[in-house]
Structures are given as C-alpha cells and as structure tokens.
Design a protein that fits this description.
single chain; mainly alpha; two-stranded antiparallel ribbon; 74% helix; 2% strand
C-alpha cells in the first residue's frame, strides 16, 4: 500500500512538474508573470517562419522554379484559394495573414510531438538542475492563444469601423430586432463579439493541452511500452495539430469577412 501511494505521489509530481511554466515575476509579489518558455518558443518559431519566407522571396525566379519555390508557391496558391472562397473583399492583407496564422500555429502545435523530457534533459545538462521548468508547446498556454485571439478581435473591430463607418452604430442599435429594441440589440451584439475571441482561444488551447497531457501520461509508462503507444498517439495527434491550425485560420477569415458585410 505504501509503495502504491509513493508511486502515485511520484506520478503526480511528474505531471505537475511538466505542466509548470518557466516564469518570472515583474517585481516581488507582482500580479503579472511572464511565461518565458511560451514567449521564447513562439518567438523563435515565428522568426523561423519569417526567415524562410524572406529566403523564398529572395530566391524566387521567373524561370523554372526549384523545389523550394514550388512548395512555397503551392502553399500560397492553396491558401489564397481558401481565402477567396470565404473572404469576398480585397485579399492583399488577409491572405498573408491567414498563411502566417496557419503556419505559425502548425509550428507551435508540432512542438507537442517532441519527446516530453527532451528540453528538461537539455536544460538539466547545462544548468545541473533537476528542477528546471520548461513547457515547449506555446499553444498549450492559454495566455498565448488568448493573445492571438484578442489580436484577431481588434482586427475585426478595425474592419467593422473601416467598412461601415458611422453605419456601424446604426447596425449595433437596430440589428436584429429593430431600433425600438436597441438595448436588446446591444446586448446580443456584445455577446456575439466577445464570444469570438473566447471560442477561438479556448478551442485551440483545449485540444493542444489535452494532447500534451496525454503525452505526459504516456511518459509515465514503462519505457518498452511508451514508444508503441506514444507513436500511435503521435500519428493521431498530427491530425489534431493540422485541424486546429486550419480551424483557427478559417474562423479568422470568416470573422473578418463578416465584419465587412452589411447586416
């Protein structure tokens, strides 16, 4: 019985350790804390994507394209086609935005496919500390997903104002029940706008966090069983990684389109 309780405590400590962020506080007893691991990994992956796109642009040729240029152009054409089907206005900004969101989210989600203890081993090796905290999946951090969804929320507001001007206030007051029920119209409009960033962020966070937790639980199993079960889950998780990035990107495009359409 004692061995069972000790084993359960070890497993609990292991899970808690891997769900703890590398954090710094902004001052003693400060309310604000920074998750350094999420900021570092998301920033590095975003920078990597930008550098790859810059390299593709500089190496682009009007002649026979190479494999790298072909791959980038195929990705761009696929994304532009998707945006054209769901966004009925000028796409000069929205297509690059959709491509950036999709690739960046895919890269962040794919960090979940790395071995659970990989970064812990590396940090422990260089720091000689077994208490190092480092969560390598930025989208399993609700702060990251909320930050992205809030940025989309402000873009939706901007496009609303740019497309409708003062007509936006008339739409808020009169749709959908008419001007005489403007308090109810405002209430429903607030709910509709607030739900968008919340649903965007929680959908992505919930799916990736669940996948991360399952990988951590698999890591508690005997080593000879980890690889088979972990491999099966990793193959299935690849679908989740791609689907969640696609959903986040598509909802962004749809929200921006809705912001400019007349009610």
């Amino acid at each position: 019985m004692a061995n069972t309780e000790a084993g359960a405590q070890v497993a609990t400590n292991y899970v808690q350790h891997h769900l703890h962020h590398w954090q710094i506080s902004l001052g003693e007893g400060a309310f604000w804390q920074l998750n350094i691991d999420s900021l570092l990994v998301s920033g590095l992956l975003g920078s990597l994507f930008v550098l790859v796109m810059l390299l593709a642009a500089r190496r682009a040729s009007s002649g026979v394209p190479g494999r790298f240029q072909n791959a980038v152009e195929a990705l761009w054409e696929w994304m532009d086609g998707l945006v054209a089907e769901n966004y009925h206005f000028n796409r000069n900004f929205v297509t690059p935005l959709a491509l950036t969101i999709f690739v960046w989210v895919v890269l962040m989600n794919c960090m979940d496919l790395l071995p659970v203890d990989l970064f812990g081993w590396v940090i422990s090796f260089f720091t000689n500390s077994h208490e190092a905290y480092f969560r390598v999946v930025p989208t399993a951090d609700p702060n990251v997903t909320f930050a992205m969804s809030i940025a989309i929320f402000f873009l939706v507001i901007f496009y609303n104002i740019r497309a409708k001007g003062f007509g936006l206030f008339k739409e808020i007051l009169s749709a959908p029940f008419g001007i005489w029920l403007f308090p109810l119209n405002i209430f429903f409009r607030l709910i509709d706008e607030v739900v968008k960033p919340i649903s965007l962020s929680l959908r992505l966070f919930g799916n990736i966090f669940a996948g991360e937790l399952i990988f951590i639980l698999i890591a508690l199993l005997p080593w000879w069983f980890q690889w088979s079960l972990g491999g099966i889950w990793a193959i299935f998780h690849i679908l989740i990684v791609l689907i969640q990035a696609f959903v986040f990107m598509m909802l962004t495009v749809v929200y921006l389109n809705m912001a400019q359409e007349a009610h």
